[in-house]
Amino acid sequence: MFDYQLWFGFALSVVVFLSTPGPVTVMVANHGASDGLMASLCTVIGTNLASLVLIGVSLLVLFGVVGIDERWLSALTLVGSLYIIYFAFSILTELKQVSQLSLYKHQADRQGLITHIKQGFLVGIANPKDVLFFIGFFPLFFGVAESKAVAATALTITWVVLDYAILLVYAYLFSKICKPKFIKLTMLISALLLLGLGAVGVIKSVMDFW
Cβ neighbours of residue 176 under 8 Å, at least 6 residues apart? Predict the structure, then answer.
């Protein structure tokens, strides 16, 4: 027996959560504006792989397979936040070096696309505190099926599909705007937002650790 009403509530909650701008959304928008649709799609692949890893760890904790150490998570969050700050500065560096952004859009080579996947994964995995979110969020909807395994599978698939769908919308919209001024503005705003999010992550992780 599958509870479609509860599942719909889960799906709606995920849409609201994923639509809220965060490091992943900001990065996908930035890559779409500066490097084109294919680069942004590769970024989405990387971020989604990171989500699967975090969900997998969360389910292992929920099913009692592994334990979780708050201080260890705080240390990893600090490292992840520092990487987000580093990535923000790399955007600012790229912005200074590029004068005709609209001319090189959609021209990322294979190596560049792999780099975007790696960057997407690293930024996606950069906040292991998401494990705690999944631990607290998923169990609320385990009632969608009688078996927890079936419920976890259904919820994970739903998350992955919605994650791809929402981020692909961001990727498509920002990749279609080719005005150099808009691209530069998007890159600048992306860098500043990532700097802010990274700084908040550093402060919070240090406070949590101590």
Answer: 37
